[in-house]
Amino acid sequence: METVLDKNKTTHEVISLSGFLNHWQGHRSLTRRVIEAFPEEEFFNHSIGGMRPFAEMVMELLGIAGPGIKEIATGKTAPLNERVDHGSNKEKILQLWDRATDEINAYWAQIKPEQFQKPIKIFGQYDGTVCSSILYFIDNEIHHRGQGYVYLRSLGIEPPMFWER
Length: 165
Fold this sequence. Notes:
The chain is mostly helical. It has one domain: Four Helix Bundle (Hemerythrin (Met), subunit A) (Up-down Bundle). The chain is 56% helix and 5% strand. The protein contains five helices and two strands; from the N terminus they run ααααββα. A two-stranded antiparallel sheet has the order 1-2. A hairpin with a 3-residue loop joins strand 1 and strand 2. Helix 1 runs antiparallel to helix 4. It starts with 16 loop residues before the first helix and ends in an 11-residue tail after the last helix.
């Protein structure tokens, strides 16, 4: 990633591509620990104020991260799919989470630095750049993880410390 040009027309790197990936994977690791903290039944059924159960939020995250980075790397667009067969089994979701983490690492390596500022219509419907799309993936995960924290606290469970990424 590069900043805007300064008056001397030189660029400055704010974060390396490996640093960007490590930042994202740090968030994914923390979200995984939030998933692990949920009792099985509450993971699929607990809700507050009309919000979806955390398992449904995680399905959204799984539908975005791996498939989104694959689309960015390959250029092959597929519709957003937030429904994955998990059999109401938290362990299966954790396996899917780990598989998505591996996909992110594999496809990330295929993205060239110059692609990050290119326009993209991710999932064939959301306009942005490669970089803004990935930042959205991360922001959306943080948002839903925050909802998971509220759920855990409402269940009397101390969530993982947010800074332990």
